[in-house]
Amino acid sequence: MPVCTLCHQNTAVHYHRNDIYTYLHCPVCDLVFVTPEERLPPADEKQRYDNHENDPNDPNYRDFLSQIFDPLKDRIEPNSYGLDFGSGPGPTLSIMFEEAGHRVETFDPFYANTPSVFNNSYDFITSTETAEHFYDPGKEFERLWKLLKPGGNLGIMTLLRPEDEPFGEWYYIKEDTHVSLYSEKTFRWLANQLSAGLTILGDRVILLHKRDI
Fold it and tell me: Which of 21, 22, 52, 141 is deepest in the core (most CB within 10 A)?
């Protein structure tokens, strides 16, 4: 059996096939993911991101990001130190937190590839519309969790798989850079693995709290 990219168990089975990808499903963590050999080459992937219009001066984009900004800012102390992981071509969430008095580093493998950010520890970390692009979500979540201080918060925005809509009709899979698709069950599994507190807000905001040692 293929290896799940999140829990790394040999449990994944065929789930769906469309004209873009073959999707596998892991019954252990409930992740649905694209068959690794079908993923886009890095150059093609970046070309897709270059077309994203993420403008920090766009009030509509800020309003979209407020879905995670508002609940997370209420959970962190003044003058906190954060990391925006997967900041994209137009970093905006980091600016919003800086405007609120926090200090934020950014990292993006295509637009802000600064490995030095992984030498620090953070009070909060955000991963906004990024987790669905993870090729190895198990590795990425483990890395972010290690960077988070005890008492810190990891905020994730990614659209959760709907239970009442056929997967093949879900608009979120029309984007060919979306290779890891999560459900509420997936994040409950992840929170259990991390011994983390879990809050799920709506269908796309997930907050993981790293309990004090």
Answer: 141
CA distance 136 to 101: 33
Residue 213 has pLDDT above 80, yes or no: no
Residue range 101-120, pLDDT digits in tens = 999 999 999 999 999 999 99
For Cα atoms 152, 154, 5, give the angle at the middle one, nearest 5 degrees: 135
Summarize pLDDT for 35-84 with one digit per residue, the tens: 999 999 989 998 988 887 778 889 999 999 999 999 999 999 999 999 99
36 close to 135: Cβ distance less than 8 angstroms: yes
- Does residue 209 contact residue 197 with C-beta atoms inside 8 Å? yes
Amino acid sitting at position 41: P
Residue type, 161: R
Q: What angle do CA 131, 182, 196 make, to 5 degrees?
A: 80
| Residue 174: DSSP 8-state | G
List the beta strands (DSSP E) in the chain: 13-17, 22-25, 32-34, 81-85, 103-107, 122-128, 148-157, 180-181, 197-201, 205-209
Query: pLDDT tens-digit profile of 19-31?
Result: 999 999 999 999 9
Alpha helix positions (H), the chain: 42-50, 59-73, 93-99, 137-147, 184-194
* Whole-angstrom distance, CA of residue 72 vs CA of residue 54: 20
